[in-house]
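Protein folding task:
====================
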Amino acid sequence: MKTINYAGMLLLSLAVACNTAPKKNIDEAVIENTVMTEEVKEVPNNRLIVPGKQVGALFLGQDMKDIFALLGNADDGDAAMGSALAIWKKDSISIFSSYRDSNMVVKAAKQIATGSSAYLTADHIHTGMTQTQLIDAWPAVKLSGVFVHEKTNDTLKVFDDMAGGIAFDIEQDLVSRIIVHEKGRSVEATYLSMYPGWRSLRK
């Protein structure tokens, strides 16, 4: 009987050992796959928002002729005193431009805004986030302006990281648009309003 019991215990120990080893391998595989997944999440350059620099293939300082070649003719816009606002509704892109220098030959992009969630910062900040999520993820932003729509009376709040060169529009508690602008300048430092149809309110 003792021989049978020892044999049974030996078989049980082998069974437990065999079942434990694969679990360890599975756990290691999960960890490896998680790391790989995080690496895959890197934002491709054609969708990357870089504060003070770019939105995808569009760059601050870029010749507007090159931008029109990429996006085609704008669907809407405005122009005054050598400055212009161009809006591409399909691509959800708005660009404020003015002359690059005193020669007044080349018009360059000064602010680039997007309402598309296809564009993200390296930290995966994008439109559709709540105001709370934005402030938690980007604490440098400060409320810089409040607007009311002339027809609907809806409210729009603008949070700006002036030093960083990026601003965020908030409508109904959600990020509706991300604006890349020159570092050290307020997002509202333009000759034309980036918010046609919206009236600025005093904070």
